[in-house]
Design a protein that fits this description.
It contains four helices and seven strands. It has 148 residues and is α+β, with helices and mostly antiparallel strands. The protein has one domain: Small Protein B, Chain: A (Beta Barrel).
Amino acid sequence: MPTLATNPRAKYDYHILETHEAGMVLAGHEVKAIKTGHLSLKGSYVTIKNEEAWLINAQIPPYQPKNTPADYQPSRTRKLLLNKREIKKLIGQSKQKGLTLVPLRVYTKKGKIKLAFALGLGKRKADKREKIIKREVKRKIDRALRGK
């Protein structure tokens, strides 16, 4: 499953509790753009409205700008394809305080474009600082061991 795009801030800003997979409703020129790597999940999120899942604020620039429809919007909301049972489960989980549906990555599976998203609990600033400190300590230890 080749990864086409990732959300680098997702694991930094959220504790990942549970992951899900969904198909996406896309136009033909959007599929071509995504397969060539023109997609940004930065700042995007998943929401559920009227028992349907939607990907909001994902940027898909035009594949060929001159051949793109005049009314095309790169950051339009895109419908996600999930079972009713999965949607009802996600509605219950996302209602809990502090839980958010965060897109992680977009990839292909059997020729179809899929979105992996997760139920995430927002991290506090202290959690992020702690992780940075641990990373720096590990880096110093590795440097000291390498230097000997």
